[in-house]
Every structure is written in structure tokens, then in C-alpha cells.
Design goal:
Layout (H helix, E strand, L loop, with lengths): L1 E7 L7 H14 L3 E7 L11 H6 L8 H8 L1 H16 L4 E4 L6 E6 L2 E7 L2 H8 L3 E5 L2 E3 L5 E3 L5 H11 L4 E5 L21 E3 H9 L7 H9 L4 E4 L6 E5 L14 E7 L2 E7 L7 H10 L4 E7 L2 E7 L3 H13 L10
Parallel strand pairs: 1-2, 1-9, 2-6, 3-6, 9-11, 10-12
Antiparallel strand pairs: 4-5, 7-8, 11-12, 13-14, 14-16, 15-16
The structure holds aspartic acid and magnesium ion (MG).
Length: 335
């Protein structure tokens, strides 16, 4: 039987109805695969056990790294227990595990908590006994067994690093958007699905602000070339990230996607190119002509980046997206 990792993000778990739906999906998939499930903390800021809500208790207080990790790791622990209980209620043999119990050992390196190694013996033991382990994401433990937490968004890292250590066949990441889009769908509502990306293309997008998957998570999956699917529950649209593209990009596609990285007043817009054929100077002129003041554009590898004010960012994104992805308007850019 093949092994699959299913990772569920916080917004996919934020209501009892959604958790029930997930439990039924796990039940179905459990008949085809050996499954390890990884969960994030439920909901976003404001939800009682979301990571930001928990961290907010420490605002303007003094605390140690250890205490920060103890508090912020609770959200994922709660999710794992709640989902495991949901599964047991529909007669699925499951067990909730902390990151440490799943064998994730971390160390402190370059000012960050990183996974040092994973001892997946215990996890494999549970799989052999027919359990579906529900692992709390975003956490591990140190040699002295104290709880540690990974980078923000680190449940993705938990998912793919466990996939690597179990030599899984597939890693599925469930979020609230159906796959990776050509740009942020909350700004451009006719953004399109990117059905296929290589690890390095996805990493470029993630490193430039596309909040689709943690860039470090892609690295772990790439070690053994395990495909990652970015999915939404009950949607057929998905993005497959893998070593080599299974579908080639048509030569008329000058851009793969446009990412946004907003930092207060200023936003960085990055165009990721498959073939390095775009002329950044043209695009810059095109923006200026359309009264979006942009500056400091630079080409780096397969990326062209511009800075615009955060106020102008939505307008600039809409303009560039239309010009690059709507066929007729490609002429505007002289591409
Ligand atoms: N809950 C953690 C965070 O908000 C980890 C994750 O969601 O991946 O950063
Ligand atoms: Mg995330």
C-alpha cells in the first residue's frame, strides 16, 4: 500500500462541519493509502486557538523562547486531538501525536529552530498497527524533550519532512484556495489556476510572497522527489509541484505567476517567468504610463520585481495580470 501525507491548514479546520467533512475524506483515502495526517491550529487571528490569538497573550510581556513555544504549540495539539476524536467517532482507528511523539527532533541553528532529524520508528509502528496518526504540525522537541516550534507556517514543513522520512509517495496540502493561482485571487478574481510547477518554480513563488506553501517545505519534498499537491476540499482544481513538469508550458505563456510581498507602505510585485523573455523596462514604462508609480525594478534569475506603494499595489497587480495573462493585451507589453 502506498503512503500519503495529508496536511490540513488552519482555515480548513475552523468549523465542526469542515472537520466532519475532513474526517470523511480521511476515511475514504485511508482505504487506498497508509495515511499520516498533519494539522495546523484552527482558524485565524481571533479564533480561540489560532496561533496569532495564542501569541497575543504574550504581547507586551516578557517571556522566554521555551515559553513562547509552549504556548504557540497548543493550537496544533488541540487540532490533532479534536480531529482524531472526530475520526474515532466514525470508527476510524486514529491517534493524536505531538510533533515530538512523531519523532521530530529540532535544534537551534542560525537563530532559527530547524528540524535536525526525524526518528519515524514510532510513526511506522502505528501505521503497521493500522492507526492513522494525526500529527500536530509546526512543532518538534529538543534533546531535553522540551517543546519547540518551527517557523510561522511551519505545519507545511512538518508535512513534507515526515513525507521525506517515511518515503511517502504523495504529499497533499489542503488550504482554502483551490491550488496556486496566477496571482492573489482576493485582488484579481479571474486569476487562473497554475496546474503544474517544478519545485524550483514553486520555491520562487513562495520566497517572493505567494502564501501557498512554506518554501522550506518544498525543499524537504524535493529530496526524494515526492510530488506535492496543493488542494482545496471538494474542488477539482489543484496544483501539482514536482521535480519536472508533467505538462509543458506553452511558448506563448510569458509569465507563470505574479506574487506580492507587502511590507506596510510598500509592496514588492514579482513576475515569475518560465523563459526569461520579458523586458522589465517595458513593463516599467507600461506601469508608469498607467499612472502607477513604480521604482527599483530588478531582474534576478527568473524574476522581475517592482516596488510600488501598497496603496497602488492592487491597481498595479490588476494591470500587469491583465497584460500578461489575457492574450489580446500581451501586445501592450510588446512581448
Ligand atoms: N499555526 C502555525 C502558524 O500560524 C503553523 C501553521 O499554520 O503552519 O504559523
Ligand atoms: Mg500555511
Amino acid at each position: 500500500m502506498k503512503t500519503k501525507i495529508m496536511k490540513f491548514g488552519g482555515t480548513t479546520l475552523d468549523s465542526s462541519l469542515k472537520r466532519m467533512e475532513i474526517a470523511h475524506l480521511i476515511k475514504e483515502e485511508g482505504q487506498k493509502y497508509k495515511l499520516v495526517v498533519v494539522v495546523s491550529a484552527m482558524g485565524r487571528m481571533g479564533s480561540p486557538y489560532a496561533t496569532d490569538t495564542l501569541i497575543n497573550y504574550l504581547k507586551e510581556k516578557k517571556f522566554s523562547k521555551k515559553e513562547y513555544s509552549m504556548l504557540s504549540s497548543c493550537g496544533e495539539v488541540i487540532s490533532s486531538v479534536v480531529l482524531s476524536a472526530e475520526l474515532q467517532t466514525i470508527n476510524i482507528k486514529s491517534i493524536a501525536l505531538t510533533g515530538g511523539e512523531a519523532g521530530i527532533q529540532t535544534h537551534y541553528k542560525d537563530d532559527q529552530t530547524k528540524i535536525k532529524y526525524i526518528n519515524s520508528k514510532k510513526l511506522e509502528g502505528y501505521l503497521d498497527e493500522g492507526y492513522i496518526p494525526i500529527v500536530a504540525g509546526f512543532q518538534g522537541e529538543r534533546e531535553d524533550r522540551s517543546i519547540t516550534t518551527l517557523d510561522r507556517g511551519g505545519s507545511d514543513i512538518t508535512g513534507t519532512s515526515l513525507g521525506n522520512s517515511l518515503n511517502a509517495d504523495l504529499i497533499e496540502i489542503y488550504t482554502d484556495v483551490a491550488g496556486i493561482r496566477t496571482t492573489d485571487p482576493s485582488i484579481v478574481n479571474d486569476s487562473m489556476l497554475i496546474s503544474n510547477l517544478t519545485y524550483s518554480q514553486a520555491e520562487l513563488m513562495a520566497n517572493n510572497g505567494a502564501e501557498i506553501i512554506h518554501p522550506e517545505a518544498i525543499k524537504w519534498a524535493s529530496i526524494r522527489k515526492i510530488p506535492i499537491l496543493i488542494k482545496k476540499i471538494a474542488s477539482n482544481e489543484e496544483t501539482r509541484i514536482e521535480y519536472a513538469r508533467t505538462k509543458s508550458i506553452s511558448k506563448s505563456n510569458k509569465a507563470l505567476g505574479i506574487t506580492i510581498d507587502t511590507n506596510h507602505q510598500e509592496s514588492k510585485i514579482t513576475i515569475i517567468e518560465p523563459y526569461k523573455e520579458l523586458d522589465s523596462h517595458h513593463i516599467h514604462l507600461f506601469l508608469l504610463k498607467n499612472i502607477v508609480y513604480s521604482y527599483a525594478y530588478k531582474n534576478k534569475g527568473n524574476c522581475i520585481s517592482f516596488k510600488v506603494s501598497s496603496e497602488d499595489m492592487p491597481k498595479a497587480i490588476k494591470l500587469i495580470h491583465k497584460a500578461l495573462f489575457m492574450k489580446k493585451s500581451q501586445e501592450v507589453l510588446n512581448v
